[in-house]
Amino acid sequence: FSRQHYKHYEDVLANMCDERARMLQHQFAASINHVQALAVLVSTFYLRAYPSVLDKDTFAEYTARTAFERPLMTGVAYAHRVWHSERDAFERIQGWTIKTMHSRETSPAYEEYAPTIFSQETINYLVSLDMMSGEEDRDNIFRARATGKGALTKPFRVLESNHLGVVLTYAVYKEVLSPEATVEERIEATAGYLGGAFDVESLVENLLSRLARSEDIIVNVYDITNSSEKLIMYGPEESPGSTILHTSLLDFGDPYRKHHLQCRLSRQV
Ligand code: WA2
């Protein structure tokens, strides 16, 4: 085909790809903002009254009624920070033991734990699981509480659905911290963690499939944080070869992670 046709296809692909990147980034940002606001709300419950007067039914109701604010997330939950010295009393009050994420067995002894105590009904299988027992969740917890900012994991298979997704975590502090607070002050003031999973595999699929001409292009999203090891986050593993490829930038708001979206025409031109 002619140069002119080639240029035309390149422009069409670039426009479609940029539009998809913008939509995805916008929906991620909306969800992330709402989770941050929820972390602030839970934090206010820990400022004045200890123990917090927030209870699991109130959390479940509020998160169910505001689920529309987090369109790409399967649900949100709150995991409480528990020191080993508090474990027995905590387990007695809850009426369950702290469990390990993958085996669902009672956790061995550690210095501290992060068992989920409140959850949106859609992900209530997290309740009693120590979120520090999963590698991806644990890394997120450490980064979120040290920075006070939202942390995203690399793409991995989330619990239950086994879909490819990413987890978002915010620390919940029991004090109001100044923006200049040190890492030590932040860790010290940590009451727990608020977060949830983006079901990239099914919710992003749903979002993209509703766009015009979605059958004409193949979309992939990658985590490119580590430039020598690009991780697939969405789309077919092996995209059939196409002469035209467009890459659009994506910013999901966590400066520690880098992502991009790549589009190809689904048929040879
Ligand atoms: N949420 C949903 N599915 C998951 C998951 C998760 N984490 N981890 C693995 N599968 C309660 O950081 C605190 C949510 C983590 C917050």
TrEMBL record:
<protein>
    <recommendedName>
        <fullName>histidine kinase</fullName>
    </recommendedName>
</protein>
<feature type="domain" description="CHASE">
    <location>
        <begin position="50"/>
        <end position="262"/>
    </location>
</feature>
